[in-house]
């Protein structure tokens, strides 16, 4: 057992020393003593939360794996380091997170199953308390200081406060790097990467005639915009031809809503978090206000600049409200029915797996286990037997069976306490409404009941189900990456239904946002279209039309907004570097083979073991890696809820360790070359390989699942020094750019 010291939390002030945790140090040979001249360079494209998490894992693993060799890291991102584009400070103060402050962390804890050391750090709530107490001195803008003063662990913070936290995490991480590792930030777009498979990589920055040179490059690009697909191009052309407004999928904070006129009828396709953000920006963001009535009912006061919104989706209702209370008492012992052992058993089956037939019954049983464990242990007065009795019988019956239904009915008298996942999934299924007002009344009642239930600890069984959902979500990537799931089921059931179901139950807005939605509905500004929303174009009248399965008639509108995020797509991405990588064949798109049919997922293919980029032939590039939502590694969130063995943290650790080993070999090889004793690396790190099995820690094993005031002056080259560990640019001149350099930097 080795004690890994915990660094101070503050980059600007000394904090009291905190006793360090005891962690296991993986077995293996100690790194060889480095050559005196050994050094290496790493370029990371992207400097947002995912890149920051990778940097933290490099800092954590460096004492074991760097051997003291010099390593210079370039971070390339036009947006502020730490926060990146999505979480940058420059966005509306009205936009909030959909997680409580105590449920957001960028740091590992004992739940994370990884080979590197665990290094604790504060959650967003803990960081806020330390800033508030003066333990940390972090410059904040006045509105953030006011927010911080009233923040509690159960507060849903603004995105601007999260930006300040992420900026601090980045600077703290940079300050925690050992002296042999330095970081340099370039506030530029990276537009192309070139270089041989076994040699130096060149990363070209927008407007720069000389590239950054790197021994290894990592793409941590975050969420990306996409060029319109065929259907979106058709809708955009229709809008242009008829003088209408059409906004394709994009990130809400970046949407240009200036073309949406006051009083204009606007169709909104999508009822998730993107819709909630757009709803806020188009109402309160334009000057509307809310007041609370004597019974606590919220009332909206229009400013006269609001459009009239008509929203619909497949389900026809918004995502469930986020649970507004913390866990108390016993935590459900997860995983129980869908953990590593269950995944191993599924992978051992012959033939292809079908999600609905083979996997969903185990996940559903896991969700039920978390739900009922909480019901029986926290609210035993609402059950007729004790938990051990119920648990034994529950384990013996299958999900969806008559035996399970009988067990639940006999053990839980109140139907409202019984879990019905099918009813939760399609709340408007089979319902028919005589007119729009009947639908509005029904959906308002549905939302109101959901808000009340999700705020009431008497229904904390829902929190048990939520924790089980997180556990299942973290164990599923290994099955997906194995290729064992039939392609058709993977696309239809996992990429389609499961991801939507998870988001609908576990990733909804805070309750107060839904209260605002109800107030806007009562004011006639938000109108519900219903389930299975359909959009058509009326060429004769020159309008968009929308209808739904449960409501007769249609509504006309002169604007259509796709209120959802753009899908990941390497072929249509607006990111020039990634699209060119794909067009050159150096970045392969994931292709699922369904008999004689090839199905493209849009995701960049990376190796399961350590996230190396695979080319169009499936070869892993020895010196290029990629992490994030644009890859098929299946880990979207860069930060996580504490205690959930977050997949992103496991991936960051696995990749950081692979990077440090590879960079060490390259540095030693270069040093030997300089001394005239060049030899081939002995490790397999530099060998060309094809993707292998999912035994690597990237797939993971699941036990359970900015303030601008912090920025330093920008140098003449456009790079900025972020801490004493971050140095000014020192990029040596390189060979002339390739013949197609102009293509690499086109605007």
- Helical content stands at 25-40%
Largest sheet: 7 strands, mixed
Number of helices: 18
Low-confidence stretches: 1-31, 677-747
Residue share in β-strands: 15-25%
Shape: globular
What would you report as the Rg, rounded to the nearest angstrom? Answer: 26 Å
Q: Largest sheet, order of strands side by side?
A: 22-23-9-3-4-5-24
Cα separation of the termini: 53 Å
How many beta-strand elements? 24
**Helix-and-strand structural type:** alpha/beta
Mean model confidence by pLDDT: 87
Biased composition (Low complexity): 1-27, 683-707, 728-737
Biased composition (Polar residues): 672-682
Biased composition (Basic and acidic residues): 738-747
Organism: Wenjunlia tyrosinilytica
Describe this structure in words.
- The strands form seven sheets. Strands 22-23-9-3-4-5-24 form a seven-stranded mixed beta sheet. A five-stranded parallel beta sheet has the order 10-19-11-14-15. A three-stranded antiparallel beta sheet has the order 6-7-8.
- The longest helix is centred in the C-terminal third of the chain and has 28 residues.
- 33% of the residues lie in helices and 15% in strands.
- The relative contact order is 0.16.
- It is built from 18 helices and 24 strands.
- It comes from Wenjunlia tyrosinilytica.
Core attributes:
single chain, 747 residues, alpha/beta, five-stranded parallel β-sheet, 33% helix, 15% strand, disordered N terminus, disordered C terminus
């Amino acid at each position: 057992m080795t004690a890994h010291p915990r660094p101070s939390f503050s980059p600007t002030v000394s904090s009291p020393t905190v006793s360090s945790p005891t962690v296991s140090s993986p077995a293996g040979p100690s790194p060889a003593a480095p050559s005196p001249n050994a050094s290496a360079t790493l370029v990371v494209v992207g400097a947002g939360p995912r890149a920051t998490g990778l940097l933290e894992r490099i800092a954590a693993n460096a004492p074991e794996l760097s051997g003291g060799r010099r390593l210079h890291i370039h971070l390339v991102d036009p947006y502020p380091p730490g926060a990146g584009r999505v979480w940058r400070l420059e966005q509306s103060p009205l936009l909030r997170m959909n997680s409580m402050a105590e449920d957001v962390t960028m740091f590992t804890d004992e739940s994370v199953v990884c080979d590197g050391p665990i290094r604790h750090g504060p959650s967003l709530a803990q960081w806020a308390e330390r800033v508030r107490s003066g333990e940390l001195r972090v410059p904040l803008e006045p509105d953030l200081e006011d927010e911080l003063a009233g923040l509690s662990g159960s507060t849903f913070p603004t995105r601007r406060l999260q930006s300040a936290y992420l900026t601090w995490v980045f600077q703290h991480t940079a300050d925690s790097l050992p002296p042999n590792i330095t970081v340099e930030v370039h506030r530029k777009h990276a537009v192309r990467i070139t270089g041989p498979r076994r040699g130096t990589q060149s990363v070209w920055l927008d407007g720069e005639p000389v590239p950054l040179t790197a021994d290894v490059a990592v793409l941590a690009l975050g969420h990306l915009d996409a060029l319109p697909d065929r259907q979106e191009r058709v809708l955009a052309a229709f809008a242009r031809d008829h003088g209408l407004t059409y906004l394709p999928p994009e990130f809400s904070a970046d949407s240009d809503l200036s073309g949406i006129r006051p009083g204009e009828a606007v169709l909104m396709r999508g009822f998730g978090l993107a819709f909630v953000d757009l709803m806020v920006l188009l109402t309160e963001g334009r000057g509307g206000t809310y007041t609370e009535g004597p019974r606590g009912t919220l009332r909206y006061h229009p400013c006269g600049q609001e459009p009239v919104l008509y929203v619909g989706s497949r389900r026809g209702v918004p995502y469930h409200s986020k649970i507004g209370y913390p866990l108390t008492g016993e935590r459900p012992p997860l995983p129980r029915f869908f953990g590593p052992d269950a995944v191993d058993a599924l992978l051992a089956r012959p033939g292809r797996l079908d999600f609905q037939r083979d996997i969903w019954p185990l996940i559903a049983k896991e969700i039920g286990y978390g739900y009922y464990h909480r019901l029986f242990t926290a609210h035993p007065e609402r059950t007729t037997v004790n938990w051990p009795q119920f648990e034994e019988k529950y384990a013996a019956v299958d999900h969806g069976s008559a035996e399970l239904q009988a067990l639940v009915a006999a053990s839980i008298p109140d139907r409202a306490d019984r879990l019905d996942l099918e009813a939760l999934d399609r709340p408007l299924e089979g319902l028919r409404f005589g007119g729009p007002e009947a639908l509005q009344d029904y959906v308002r009642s549905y939302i109101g009941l959901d808000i009340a239930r999700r705020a009431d600890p008497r229904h904390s069984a829902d929190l048990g189900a939520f924790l089980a959902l997180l556990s299942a979500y973290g164990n599923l990537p290994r099955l997906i990456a194995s290729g064992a799931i039939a392609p058709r089921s993977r696309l239809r059931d996992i990429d389609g239904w499961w991801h939507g179901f998870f988001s609908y139950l576990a990733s909804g807005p805070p309750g107060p946002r839904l209260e605002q939605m109800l107030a806007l509905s009562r004011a006639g500004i938000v109108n519900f279209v219903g389930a299975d929303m359909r959009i058509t174009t009326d060429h004769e009248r020159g309008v968009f039309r929308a209808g739904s399965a449960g409501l007769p008639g249609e509504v006309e509108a002169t604007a259509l907004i796709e209120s959802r995020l753009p899908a990941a797509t390497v072929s249509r991405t607006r990111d020039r570097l990634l699209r060119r990588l794909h067009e050159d064949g150096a970045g392969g798109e994931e292709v699922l083979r369904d008999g004689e049919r090839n199905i493209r997922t849009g995701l960049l293919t990376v190796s399961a073991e350590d996230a190396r980029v695979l080319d169009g032939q499936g070869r892993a590039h020895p010196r290029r890696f990629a992490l994030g939502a644009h890859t098929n590694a299946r880990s979207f969130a860069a930060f996580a809820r504490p205690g959930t063995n977050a997949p992103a943290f496991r991936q960051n650790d696995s990749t950081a360790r692979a990077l440090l080993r590879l960079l060490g070999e390259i540095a030693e090889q270069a040093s030997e070359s300089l001394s005239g004793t060049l030899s081939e690396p002995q490790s397999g790190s530099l060998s060309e390989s094809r993707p292998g099995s999912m035994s690597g820690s990237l797939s993971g094993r699941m036990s359970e699942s900015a303030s601008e005031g912090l920025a330093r002056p920008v140098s003449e080259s456009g790079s900025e020094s972020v801490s004493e560990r971050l140095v000014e640019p020192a990029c040596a001149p390189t060979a002339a750019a390739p013949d197609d350099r102009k293509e690499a930097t086109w605007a």
